[in-house]
TrEMBL record:
<dbReference type="InterPro" id="IPR001789">
    <property type="entry name" value="Sig_transdc_resp-reg_receiver"/>
</dbReference>
<protein>
    <submittedName>
        <fullName>Response regulator transcription factor</fullName>
    </submittedName>
</protein>
<feature type="domain" description="Response regulatory">
    <location>
        <begin position="7"/>
        <end position="123"/>
    </location>
</feature>
<keyword id="KW-0804">Transcription</keyword>
<dbReference type="Pfam" id="PF00196">
    <property type="entry name" value="GerE"/>
</dbReference>
<dbReference type="GO" id="GO:0003677">
    <property type="term" value="F:DNA binding"/>
</dbReference>
<keyword id="KW-0597">Phosphoprotein</keyword>
<dbReference type="InterPro" id="IPR039420">
    <property type="entry name" value="WalR-like"/>
</dbReference>
<dbReference type="InterPro" id="IPR016032">
    <property type="entry name" value="Sig_transdc_resp-reg_C-effctor"/>
</dbReference>
<dbReference type="Pfam" id="PF00072">
    <property type="entry name" value="Response_reg"/>
</dbReference>
<dbReference type="InterPro" id="IPR000792">
    <property type="entry name" value="Tscrpt_reg_LuxR_C"/>
</dbReference>
<keyword id="KW-0805">Transcription regulation</keyword>
<feature type="modified residue" description="4-aspartylphosphate">
    <location>
        <position position="58"/>
    </location>
</feature>
<dbReference type="GO" id="GO:0000160">
    <property type="term" value="P:phosphorelay signal transduction system"/>
</dbReference>
<feature type="domain" description="HTH luxR-type">
    <location>
        <begin position="149"/>
        <end position="214"/>
    </location>
</feature>
<dbReference type="GO" id="GO:0006355">
    <property type="term" value="P:regulation of DNA-templated transcription"/>
</dbReference>
<dbReference type="InterPro" id="IPR011006">
    <property type="entry name" value="CheY-like_superfamily"/>
</dbReference>
Length: 217
């Protein structure tokens, strides 16, 4: 096991919380706070420059939210582990963070021991969730999946319904192409057909229609 400290970058737009956490973590043996960031864009830039082992990232930040910042950090430097530390208990936020590449998700009510344990776990390549979040993840995946309803959007083909469900889940066209082993052009054509058949103007309107119908879980 390496004797090198775990190098941590803290990204949070609340200075009192951010500075307090920096002092707290700086007092922990084996942890070194190498920098802080007050916005999502600053977090991306500082992660690229400092190359920390871990970025502790808030979800709600100005300039660029923590989900998109996480996506960019992981895309630029896949070896950096991102631990979300947030007030948000929303399932949508949790799973968006996971899709963006976060390896851990803690609520801000976590105590010092939980935060340190999570940082150490993520630094060693593990995925970790606080007790409350872990229970929500378990409940989500243990719930029976709803049976496909072919009467939903009957004007769509089965493939178009499948793609609409992925759109409602927040997937981009390239992500849908990868998930369904389709070419980007095929996905674009299907998305255009979906918009035309549902009489929606854009992706946002399609997502609203699909989620109202229960798609995108």
């Amino acid at each position: 096991m390496s004797d090198e400290p775990i190098r941590v970058l803290l990204a949070d737009d609340h200075p009192v919380y951010r500075d307090g956490l920096a002092v707290l973590l700086g007092s922990i043996p084996g942890v070194e706070v190498v920098g802080t960031a007050a916005t999502g864009r600053e977090a991306v830039e500082r992660a690229a420059a400092l190359q920390p082992d871990i970025v502790v990232m808030d979800v709600t930040m100005p300039d660029l939210d923590g989900i998109e910042a996480t996506r960019r950090v992981v895309a630029d430097s896949p070896h950096i582990g991102v631990l979300m530390l947030t007030m948000s208990e929303e399932d949508a936020t949790l799973f968006a963070a996971m899709r963006a590449g976060a390896r851990g998700y803690l609520l801000k009510g976590a105590n010092q021991a939980e935060i340190v344990r999570a940082i150490q776990a993520v630094a060693h390549g593990e995925a970790i969730f606080g007790p409350t979040v872990a229970r929500r993840v378990a409940e989500y995946f243990s719930a029976p999946a709803p049976a496909p309803d072919e009467s939903m959007f009957p004007q769509l083909t089965p493939r178009e319904r499948e793609i609409l469900s992925l759109i409602a889940a927040g997937r981009s066209n390239p992500q849908i192409a990868s998930a369904l082993f389709l070419s980007p052009k095929t996905v674009r054509n299907n998305v255009s057909n979906i918009f035309a058949k549902l009489h929606v103007a854009d992706r946002t309107e399609a997502i609203v229609r699909a989620r109202d119908a229960g798609l995108g879980r």
